Amino acid sequence: MSAQTIIKVEGLSKHYLLNKIPMQKSDTLYGNFINGLKNIKQLTQKKQTEDFWALKDVSFEIEKGDRVGIIGRNGAGKSTLLKILSRITPPTKGRIEYSGRMASLLEVGTGFHGDLSGRENIYLNGSILGMTKQEIDRKFDEIVAFAEVEKFLDTPVKRYSSGMYVRLAFAVAANLESDILIVDEVLAVGDAAFQKKCIGKMNDVSKNEGRTVLFVSHQLNTLQALCNKGLVLNKGEVSLNVTSSEQAIKHYMLLANQTARTSIVDRLDRDGEGKIKVADIKFSNSVQQQIEELITGQELNIHVSYQCINSFVGQRISVALAFYGDDGILYTVVNSENTGVIYDNIKGSGELVCSIPKLPLMEGNYFINVSITENGIAQDWVQEATSINVIAGDFYGTGKINPNTHKSILINNSWLK
Amino acid sequence: MKPDRIIIDSHLSSFFSLKDVLRYRTLLNNLAKRDFLVRYKQAFAGIIWAIIKPLVNILVFGYISSKISNTGNTATNFVYVASAMLLWQLFSNVFNEVSNSIINNANLFSKVYFPKIIIPISTLLVSLVDFFISLIILIVLFVISGQSIHWHLVLAPLFIALTLINGFGIGLYFATINVKYRDVKFIVPVIIQFGMYATPVIFSTRFYLDRIPEWLHWIFCINPMVGAIDGFKYALFGGDAIYNLNYFILSLFISFVFLFIGVKYFYKFERNFVDYI
């Protein structure tokens, strides 16, 4: 370990055994009873399991004061890596060596209890994060000021607005003194103003106080704003070792392009319950011809085909499509629920169609993340499900095309004479 | 201050460390405080319930059992049974709470690292607070029923501690199994319910041993609560509460065997709890 190295990870692997025959569950009382008996019977049989390596031989070093963004798709092993680094779960192989105090924020407000007051929760949450009473006493005023909850300190937090709750939770964590800070997606909470404040605080922590930060986020632009280094993980392995954040994002996009070409139904890197899955995404134009390339301003139909597992009948289903540029920036999201359309009695397989009268994306490459929600429960979520190539087109119908210096969204506008 | 150097290795195993527990004592206090405060939040009578619950238990069981085992002075008999009942309640509380403590707090240790032993210890503290409230009731009963004060009263805290050891040791063992098999949640109350009848709570050890065949005697005394309750009765009332010194020592020995097994088992799997929860 050189003088500058603060974290050294060597040959880290994490192995999970997945049960091939999961414990039987049923919705009915009778079914539950029968399954209970079956499960007891199964105890005597040899279990069928499947090996799964969440991390495979991961090695890297991080230098003091670096702000490292960990980039990877769903199932790339980011969360597992953070969990092992923060000592929540042990590695199967390999070792980690680090010096100094480590604080990990895998969630804001761990252990917050709705019935306890703001004051009581500050002490409880602070102590869970590893602060002593003296430390919390010392930081108390700062925490309260940052969270802007002075007047409600003795109110149970279940009466707080969600904004206040998150502010308080983040404030405790942000005031934790540590040499290494591990942050997982927690900035994706709260309103825009608060997010800005959080990022400001994080910048403060890392740039001015010289702390080392490890950061995971799906929002590549936040990552770019915050980190000077990047580490790309892919399928549990290091795809690109610690390097500048620009290069890491570029590399990640290259990877995304490759995976976006594999068919969606075969993809394993997905989240959600999985009772209904996205099978494919196709595009067609105004005369129902299937198209591969899209044109700015054209009328467009997006066909999302789905597959349900046996006997599943979905109620209150909504589909969301998020459009990311190859620069990692989110350009827009379309969600069926927000247009007032909710699909009921969805079963078997079929397709749901989203119609866009005038494609507002400018020329360039984009990725689409797709998610299906059933009755408020995420059933499927595939990142970079497909990539699309948009070619420049006449959005305004005037023969003029916006110069493609920056990617952006085009909006309809008119000027009064 | 020299920064700590921490090594996370795949083949390191964890073990009990008092230093770790002391370092996290703020957390220990706050978890215990949370459990105690939350229980009586939004309850009109608030903390008074902490007195009513054990009082009703002691009165009902004390009354019924003093009627059943009708020997001599009713008031003395009543306090006698109440004291055993109190200790059994402490044991069953600790056993039950500790065995569920790990799964009830999974949301904490799956997001933040801290020594997991803090959780069962904090539930032990909460049960102890409840116990002290009931103890006040027992002391009042003890005084008004006119019991005489002996030197062996000073032994009483030892047997309270022994009860904690019993509940904690066995509880830790079940808490560990509970992580993977939630069946424990249902088994523990059954053990507690039937355990009471295999323990000298309502009747004395003499009563049991006189009625079961001799070869079963040592099995009866393998129950670690036999030693704790008999010892407690001896500390309070003297006399022949400790029926057979050999069996008494066997029971005490078993207490520590269970504690050892419980702690050992807990630490064997502690590092992997998150993967199975």
Provide the fold topology:
The complex is a heterodimer of chains A (417) and B (277).
Chain A: E1 5-19, H1 29-42, E2 49-63, E3 67-71, H2 78-85, E4 93-99, E5 102-105, H3 118-128, H4 133-147, H5 162-174, E6 180-184, H6 192-208, E7 212-216, H7 220-226, E8 229-234, E9 237-244, H8 245-261, E10 270-271, E11 276-284, E12 290-291, E13 293-295, E14 300-308, E15 317-325, E16 330-335, E17 349-356, E18 364-374, E19 377-391
Parallel strand pairs in A: 3-7, 3-8, 5-6, 6-7, 13-19
Antiparallel strand pairs in A: 1-2, 1-4, 8-9, 10-19, 11-12, 11-14, 14-17, 15-16, 15-18, 18-19
Chain B: E1 5-9, H1 18-23, H2 25-39, H3 49-68, H4 74-104, H5 106-109, H6 118-144, H7 156-180, H8 184-195, H9 205-211, H10 217-222, H11 224-237, H12 245-269, H13 273-276
Helix pairs in contact in B: 2-6, 3-4, 3-6, 4-6, 4-7, 4-8, 4-11, 7-11, 7-12, 11-12
Structure description:
The complex is a heterodimer of chains A (417) and B (277). Chain A is built from 8 helices and 19 strands. With 417 residues, chain A is of the alpha/beta class. Chain A folds into 3 domains: 5-53, no CATH class; 63-258, P-loop containing nucleotide triphosphate hydrolases (Rossmann fold, 3-Layer(aba) Sandwich), CATH 3.40.50; 269-391, abc- transporter (atp binding component) like domain (Coagulation Factor XIII, Chain A, domain 1, Distorted Sandwich). In chain A, the strands form 4 sheets. Chain A has a 6-stranded mixed sheet, sandwiched between helices. In chain A, strands 10, 13, 15, 16, 18 and 19 form a 6-stranded mixed sheet that branches. In chain A, α3 (118-128) packs across α5 (162-174). Chain A starts with a strand and ends in a 26-residue tail after the last strand. With 277 residues, chain B is mainly α. Chain B has one domain (23-276). In chain B, 71% of the residues lie in helices and 2% in strands. Chain B is built from 13 helices and 1 strand. The two termini of chain B are 37 Å apart. The model of chain B has no long low-confidence stretch (mean pLDDT 87). At the A-B interface, α2, β4 and α3 of A face β1, α2 and α5 of B.
